[in-house]
Amino acid sequence: MRLERLDPWRVRIPRHGGMRVDGIVYAGPELMAEIERDPCLEQVANVAHLPGIVGASLAMPDIHWGYGFPIGGVAAMDAEEGVISPGGVGYDINCGVRLLRSTLTADEVRPRLRELVAQLFRNVPTGVGAGRRDLRLGRRDLERVLARGAAWAVGRGMGEPDDLLHIEEGGCLATADPEAVSARACERGGPQLGTLGSGNHFCEVQEVEEVFDEKAAAAFGLARGQVTVMLHSGSRGLGHQVCSDFLKRMLDAARRYGIALPDRQLCCAPIRSEEGREYLGAMAAAANFAFANRQVMTHWVRESFAAVFGLPPARLGLGVVYDVCHNIAKFERFTVAGRERRLCVHRKGATRAYPPGHPQTPEAYREAGQPVIIPGDMGRYSYVLAGTERAFADTFGSSCHGAGRRLSRHRAKAAARGRDLVGELAARGVVVMADGMATVAEEMPEAYKDVAEVVEVVEGAGISRRVARLRPLGVIKG
Amino acid sequence: MPFRFIDHTGDVGFELEGGTLAELLSEAVAAFACTLTDRERLGSAESRELELAAPAPDLLLHALLEELLYLFERDGFLAREGRMELAGERPWRLRARLAGECRDPQRLPLKLLVKGITYHQLAVAERDGGFHGRVLLDI
């Protein structure tokens, strides 16, 4: 595949074959060398085949081999002429990250860290299976979750109204259609509300280690030495099943609409078709489930801190800094070639990164820009960035979503063999509790790229700017 | 072993072989169990029956794996092995008799949780007197 470097931060995949637009990959030379060893560039080119794609098929620097879309892919489709692809959102609809700030300092937390992590591990269900016995949903409740998202949980006393102001889309996609969610999806995911899941999902206690932009950090309520909590989870089995159900339908639909697919996982239907509309309604409902899921777990994080430190939640702060979606398709407005257009932006392992002054950026952050939360790995660090005008102009308001895997799960396990990873992380000051050691091995720090290299690219390219770096203190995993 | 795991960056996949399509599908049951847990320790006292139809062999493999995932998420049931009977082509019809157990988390730790069975590089082909398949799972 021919590649052309455009500048220190971007590489172009020139349009060829059935591609309707170019591909553009955000990566410096070193990251690019790694990316080229992975089949993901072909996936960037494949996405460029989809009808109605606007601008370019984009890839963020944390790109790696996915299925259909690459992980780290962004594609904007014309709302009238374009297609919607469930594979461009992924199985874990609205997988995302939420960051909480606290009034505690790392020095205050460290003496009770092990106790705190154990309390979180007890309170926030991890791994496979159903969640807590004190949260059982009937069909009616589940329909309300699907329609209202995080607001459902707040209405049930699991959170504060203020939380909703600091979630992408206010924690609810109003276009949700609970009727479009299959009985099987409800059966599979209903009992999993308020559960973290497994794989790369986590709940992490962190310390603000470095502040790069004092003014933006102050706006986000962050200061050096402060303790934060990061939650990474999605729509669990409910979203997974919605994706599976609609992939099957879209395979037929793509054939009927005469859409040529370079990869069946890219199956899609026109946005305005019956299949397209139904998927968008079901996807929004699953996204609302994910918003509610992170809201419920936020409540249990607050209860865990209150139990360990013997302080009421109000004294502990634990306010929501922000909550971002990683896997989503949403209608957003952008100016393309001087004309305002309504686009359906697919972000598959990418984060919205809106600039200062945008009406969708919470009022408290209007000067700083939207917080962009970038988890790293459990041994090194994570970042808080802010969205920029450049992202709005160049990447449909999008940025990276994490470090991106470097090792396959198999290779990570091989690298972990014979090692005491929990002990190694403890030596670095990180307490880890997990359902199984296999997950710890697969998610070991070396399995990921250094997120600092990824962040360097998005800052260099001007599509986000660094606000703060967070160091892990304690992690729970499924 | 007539299946082998594929080294995928973020997810997990396997390649399968069978003298017949039915054998390949049986191998898929074993590979799925090995993906999730230690199959050697998995019992076979419980059974489930599935009847599936698909317009092509690769889609039949996909449908079978989706059902295995659903049974696991709904009931905790993991099949150790499956006896496959193919009853017709175009569409391909399958009756699968699965033997396994509802997992006891204390006895059988999970290796991975699977989110979905993808269509990316999904393939079943007949060549060299046998069947070869490939499938990737989202983790």
CATH topology of chain A: tRNA-splicing ligase RtcB
Biggest β-sheet description of chain B: 5 strands, antiparallel
Total DSSP helices of chain A: 17
How much β-strand is present in the residues of chain A?
25-35%
> What CATH architecture label of chain A applies?
Alpha-Beta Complex
**Helix percentage range of chain A:** 25-40%
CATH homologous superfamily annotation of chain B: Archease domain
CATH topology of chain B: Archease, Possible Chaperone, Chain: A, domain 1
N/C terminus separation of chain A? 39 Å
Total number of distinct structural domains of chain A = 1
Average predicted confidence as pLDDT of chain A: 96
Helix/strand-derived class of chain B? alpha+beta
> Would you list the SSEs of chain B in sequence order as H and E?
EEHEHEEEEE
Explain this structure.
The complex is a heterodimer of chains A (478) and B (139). Chain A has 478 residues and is an alpha+beta fold. Chain A has one domain (4-477): tRNA-splicing ligase RtcB (Alpha-Beta Complex), CATH 3.90.1860.10. Helix content of chain A is 34%, strand content 27%. Chain A is built from 17 helices and 19 strands. Chain A has helices at residues 29-35, 40-47, 106-109, 113-123, 139-148, 150-155, 161-164, 183-189, 214-220, 236-256, 274-309, 313-316, 389-394, 409-416, 421-427, 437-442, 451-460, and strands at residues 4-7, 10-13, 22-26, 53-67, 69-78, 83-84, 96-105, 202-211, 226-233, 269-270, 319-325, 327-336, 339-348, 351-352, 371-374, 382-387, 398-399, 431-434, 464-477. In chain A, the strands form 4 sheets. In chain A, strands 7, 8, 9, 11, 15, 16, 18 and 19 form an 8-stranded mixed β-sheet that branches. In chain A, a hairpin with a 7-residue loop joins strand 15 and strand 16 (382-387). Chain A is globular and about 60 Å long. The mean pLDDT of chain A is 96. Chain B is an alpha+beta fold and 139 residues long. Chain B has a single domain, classed as Archease domain (Archease, Possible Chaperone, Chain: A, domain 1, 3-Layer(bab) Sandwich), CATH 3.55.10.10. Helix content of chain B is 25%, strand content 41%. Chain B has 2 helices and 8 strands, in the order E-E-H-E-H-E-E-E-E-E. In chain B, strands 1, 2, 6, 7 and 8 form a 5-stranded antiparallel β-sheet that branches. Chain B has a 3-stranded antiparallel β-sheet with strand order 3-5-4, with helices on one face. In chain B, strand 7 (123-127) and strand 8 (130-138) form a beta hairpin. At the A-B interface, strand 4, helix 8, helix 10 and helix 14 of A face helix 2 and strand 6 of B.
